[in-house]
Amino acid sequence: MSVVIHSRRLYTALALSVSTLMSLPGAQAETSIRPPAQSHKDWLKLKSNELLRGEIKTLYDDKLEFDSDELDTVMIDWEDVKLLQSAGTVSIGFTDLSTRSGKLLVEDGRSYLDGVEFDPGQIMTIIAGEQSEANYWSAKISLGANIRSGNTDQIDYSARAKTTRRTTESRFNADYLGNYTKSDGTSTVNNHRVNSNFDWFISKQFYVRPVFAELYKDPFLNIDYKATLGAGLGYNIIDSKKTEWSISGGPAYTYTRFDQVETGAKPHDGSASVVLETVFDTELSGDVDFTTKYQLQYSSEDSGGYSHHAIASLSVDLTDIFDLDLSVVWDHTGNPQAGSNGIMPDKNDYQFIIGFGIDL
What is the value of pTM for the model shown? Predict the structure, then answer.
């Protein structure tokens, strides 16, 4: 009997203690705290109940960029946001490809623009302020170099650059990849590739590519320059919070001018071609991204026949704007053309590139 009585007394004491603690001032502050309704600052509250004051920058690919007054710029997964309140006007791109502007409030699964409720699942992008040209652009530059002096004087240089203009309706991409090596005064590597395309979205998944172009130069492959111009279609196979996978392609025209040719051989060639491309991008962790791109081209045998350009990259965030980039590149030309000395270039070129990137 005494055990039962003591147990009841213990239970009652514990219940009173918990009740007393919950009634103390500030005991529920963690869950009840919220930003002021009127403020000259934007507010962000996470599902962990951490509250930040600062400035909304952008929401893109389900990543919210927020400039905190205390923590500087932070990148937050959109799924971790419990509350987002803008002090001024923001521009929202919706999944139906429309755009609206106003004061935004997102809280506990509900969202309002200038007080009018809408489905938060329709939000695709957020840009601070009214829509302006500067808000559409992003860029990244990655550089690598190796300089040696002594018994061998050598310089190795590699560069990658990417710029994108993205709105809810369209997307423009331009990429550059270049490598240069000079050893004891003699150039041994010198190749450059520029790709560009413009996409117009019919839906979130399907897009028309009115134009795409590529310019490639590699004298060691006996290519003074190779230019390709075409048009096609594209489709986003996966477009999730952490992974994107798209495929595109279409007909094109390819013009190749050779660096050197044997006596009697044509110095250039032009032909119809077909270009197919797939791009896969996934977030392995909060600081590591993995991207692959594979582009194949069928053209005339004189222009190289079947060729492809494949690149796989691992990008590790060092700071908010600096990255460590590791890339493997594989270029293949099915039917390379011999130079004036009769030597046939290799069909395959492989590169491993280490660079430090800057996000702009």
Answer: 0.72
